[in-house]
Amino acid sequence: MIAILKQSASDEAVSHIVSWIEKKGLKTDVSRGENETIIGLVGDTTKIDPFLLESMDVVERVQRVSEPFKRANRKFHPEDSVIDCGHGVKIGGDQFQVIAGPCSVEGENLIRIARRVKAAGATMLRGGAYKPRTSPYAYQGMGPAGLDLLCEASAELDMPIVTEIMDPRDVQVFLNKKIDVMQIGARNAQNFPLLKEVGKTKTPILLKRGMSGTIDELLMAAEYIMSEGNDNVILCERGIRTFETRTRNTFDLNAVPVLHHLSHLPVVADPSHATGYTRYVEPMALAATACGANGLEIEVHDDPSRAWSDGAQALTPDQFDDTMRRIRAIREVVFQETME
Ligand code: PEP
Ligand code: MN
Questions:
Q1: Cα–Cα distance, 24 to 47 (Å, whole number)
Q2: Whole-structure pTM value
Q3: Atom 4 in ligand 1: residue holding the nearest Cα
Q4: What pLDDT sits at residue 340?
């Protein structure tokens, strides 16, 4: 349920209503937009009489929200959320960002790749130090030493880093190292203890859609994080498992406009994991840009044939240069934006 307040509602009137609602055992989520203030009621709304609420002086109207996700819901928060990822980089609304880097942090090649992706126009650096691998015998990641390499690259290049967290027990390590954005991978999209734990921080979370997850399940995963107090969630479409076997996954680009319709959170698209093959990454990166993604996540490696993971889908730095040029062209044509 949401209460849309009259434009004239004073701060005092808003806090009066908020405490009235909270006394009934519900939580509130107040969104102050330019034109209206909306109070989202979270919890058991059967305890509230909507007619009584609507009869209050400052209330314009009360609306039921049928979807089970509340804080992620655009009805609660009509304006796009813009999330500050550090180093002056914001994502959401008309702020478009490209996250690029290797699948895994492997060693000193990270800084070389990082310099190239930055020069090409990427604004955030990715790299996995903890890798969720299907086989326990496959490379599992460098761990804390990998995080240190990412932090060094971030300091040299003044760009935020995005790196995956797999275990709730590692949250403190990520906080101590001041990791800019924590990624929750597809395999952990319904790891509820992990979602709750990162929800207790204020660090932006790049939340990937589960391998066979529906759009609603992705939004409910976001809701887990937000219900603990962290509103800095970036949704990520990375392809889903279907009967198609020619590509690693099926890139569900429908999800981009659907998520924008349902939610105010920024939406990133990952054409690397969605396709699984270098040759398909650029065309699908362009398609994702054209359909309104707020950002892209693209894997880049300086020597893909020797990459420790996901070499088959990595772009070389030269290929990434070309792809970035075309992404800029799409942004210009479709969104009249001039990227630096
Ligand atoms: C990754 O980003 O390297 C990764 C493992 O992605 P996903 O969780 O989407 O498979
Ligand atoms: Mn990968």
A1: 7
A2: 0.92
A3: 185
A4: 65
